[in-house]
Amino acid sequence: MNCIVCKNSNNNLIYKNLKDRLHQDIEGKYNLKRCNVCGLIFLDPQPTTKEITRHYPSEYGVYNSSSESRKKFLVAKWINNVFLKKENSNIFLKAGLIFFYYKLAHLPDFIKSGRVLDVGCSLGDRLLMLKYLGWQVEGVEISKKAAVIARCRLKKSIYNSTFEKAKLPNNYYDAVYLNNVFEHFKKPMFCLKKIRHILKKGGQLIVVVPNSSSLSFRIFKQNTLLIDVPRHYYTYNENNLTRILKEEGFIVNTVVYSNCFSSFSSGFALLLGKKVDYFKLLDKMLWLMGFVLDPILNVFGVGDYLIIKAEKVNK
C-alpha cells in the first residue's frame, strides 16, 4: 500500500501482529507501517468494513461517556470569553490563564449564533458544552444507540450515519469539529472534500488527532493507546496532516499540542501486561502534571494530541 499523503511506496513495517487492546476477545491481528518520507503511520493491509464493524461493540468507551457537569460548562464559558472571542485582546488576562488554554484549545472560535457540526458526537457531551457556549449544534454519529441518546438530550439534529454517507447541506456550517475522529476515516481526503462543501465561506475546521511525534509514542511504542488498532487507520504528525489540509483547500491557522502525559498510565499498564485502566490514580496525577507543563512542552511538539484549526479557502 502506498502512502496516501506522498503517494509513494517508501515505507517500513514498524509493528506486526498487533491486537485490539481494548477488546481483546475480538479476533484479528494487524500490521502498522510508517512512510519514510512524511512519517504517516498506517494499517496495511486495512480491515474490510465487515471486519472493522466488530471492533466498535456497544461497550466501546465513547458510547459510555457521562454527561458534563454544569461546573465544567461554567469554566469552559469563562475561558471561552477570554481565548475564543476574537474581539478580546487582553493579553495579560490570557497570559494568566494560559494553562487552561491548552486544555480547551480544541474549542472552535466563537461566532454568535454560529452553526457547528460535531462529527462522531457519541452521546452528545461535547455538543452540550458547545450549545451552552452559544452555538447552534448538530452532530453525526454512526452508533444508533448513541445517536438516539444524543438526540433526546439535545433536541437537535443528530444524523445516525457514517460521515461519508450523511446527507448534509452545503455552505451551511460555520465550524466542523473532529475530536479524535479523523484518524478513524479510511478515506480522509474524501471526507475533507465533503467538509469543504458543507462549510460556509471562511468556515473553520477543528481537527484533534493522536500525535505520532508525542513523548508517549516514542517511549511506549506499540504499547501506547495512541495506536488504537484497528480503529485508527492512520496516525498523523503536524507535517503530514497540515500537508493534507492545504492540498484539500484549507489554510492552517493554529497548531497546538496538548495533554503531554494523558496516555502514560495506560502505556505503563500495557507495558506490564495489565488492563489499560490499571493505574487510575497515576492517570489523575499525570493530568495535573500536564496541566502545568503543557504550555512549555507545546514548544517541542510532543503532546499526546495534535490540535489544528484550519479555515476553508474559496478556490
Task: Give a quick rundown of the structure.
With 315 residues, the chain is an alpha/beta fold.
Radius of gyration from the CA trace? 19 Å
Taking strands numbered 1, 2, ... along the chain, how are they ordered across the largest sheet? 6-5-4-7-8-11-10
Question: Which range best describes the helical content: under 10%, 10-25%, 25-40%, 40-55%, 55-70% or over 70%?
Answer: 25-40%
How much of the polypeptide forms β-strand, as a percent range?
15-25%
CATH architecture term? 3-Layer(aba) Sandwich
CATH topology: Rossmann fold
Annotation field: number of helices: 11
**N-to-C order of helices and strands:** EEEHHHHEHEHEEHEHEHEHHE
Oligomer: single chain
* C-alpha geometry: globular
Structural class: alpha/beta
How far is it from the N-terminal to the C-terminal residue, by CA? 31 Å
CATH class label = Alpha Beta
CATH level 4 superfamily: Vaccinia Virus protein VP39
Instruction: Report the average pLDDT across residues.
Output: 87
How many β strands by DSSP?
11
Could you describe the largest sheet, including whether it forms a barrel?
7 strands, mixed
* Tally of distinct domains: 1
Low-confidence stretches: 66-70
